[in-house]
Amino acid sequence: MTRIGIVVGSTRPGRRGRAVAEWVASVAAQEQPEADFEIVDLADFALPLLDEEQPALFGRYGNAHTVRFAEAVSRYDGFVFVTPEYNHSIPGALKNALDFVYAEWNNKAAGFVGYGLHGATRAVEHLRLILAELRVATVRTQVALSLHHDFTFSAPTEPGAFTPGAHQHQTLSTLLADVVVWSRALQPVREGALA
């Protein structure tokens, strides 16, 4: 069965990413039953700032936290990255996690669910460039959730409950189907890289 990790890209207290990832997992369970989707919350790994002596490209990980994270990433055939936009880019925690390992990301597919004032479109643009260097194939369709339209506000400046618009469901459905198809298509490439 194709395994897809739903990566929660923010570790900030009060983040909205976990609720968004749970929505992604819920829609995936209904619409992609032939694939196994699991939430991969970066907060659960508590990765420090990159502290490996050798570049990840060499695959010689010296720290237990890196080995644990590498094992988790390697289990998946593809990913859906759930990311907010911080200062026109991705959160530092997500960039740090991407830099920790290398081969474990290679030859897999990825899609994006961004959330922010402008749907995290600029963060996703940066993430696409980073993933290209990690040899990850990204799908075209992306979900851009607006803090103004897809979250209710509990105070004037504080987004509350996550309430995605109905149109977001169809976009997410297309994204999930694309990630599953591309993850399967890249399986021979992954197997060839391991041979």
Please describe what this structure looks like:
It holds the Pfam family FMN_red. Residues 3-148 form the NADPH-dependent FMN reductase-like domain. By secondary structure, the protein is an alpha/beta fold. It has one domain: Flavodoxin domain (Rossmann fold, 3-Layer(aba) Sandwich), CATH 3.40.50. Helices cover 39% and strands 26% of the residues. The protein has helices at residues 17-31, 64-74, 92-100, 121-133, 166-185, 187-194; strands at 2-8, 35-41, 78-84, 108-116, 136-146, 151-155, 158-162. Helix 1 (17-31) links the parallel strand 1 and strand 2 (35-41). It is globular and about 50 Å long. The mean pLDDT is 95.
What is this structure's SSE topology?
Layout: E1 2-8, H1 17-31, E2 35-41, H2 64-74, E3 78-84, H3 92-100, E4 108-116, H4 121-133, E5 136-146, E6 151-155, E7 158-162, H5 166-185, H6 187-194
Helix pairs in contact: 1-5
